[in-house]
Write the structure tokens for this entry.
Amino acid sequence: MLKVYLSGEIHTDWRAQIEKGAKALSLPVEFFSAVTDHGASDAAGDHLREQSEGFWRDHQSAKVNLIRTKNLIESADLVVVRFGDKYKQWNAAFDAGYCAAMGTPYVTLHDDSIVHPLKEVDAQALAWATSNDQVVEILRYVTQEK
């Protein structure tokens, strides 16, 4: 079973499309992801203590989120890092850098319009995909038995 961590933008259904494509081909893949509910992610550390400033709330929750992200990336066989065009995904860039530092294979997924700002991230990726179908094809290829 190939363990695949899906990192990056949370405003589209790209994760569901990749999972659906892998399921349609009966690929031996298990998917993991960050918390994709923006509000829940922002509140991940709220149970620790109330913060009067937004910066400290974000800081506290980012650390709690990192426990999950770090463990899932470290256990992944492959990471897919999706960059959307609407928001800056600094967390996705960090995930890609963490993969590169650890030697964990990763694939980037983004369109042509952001090739330049992602040139260093793409330089370390083992593939750059522009569609969910291309990611599914990579998964099909790396899990085939022959």
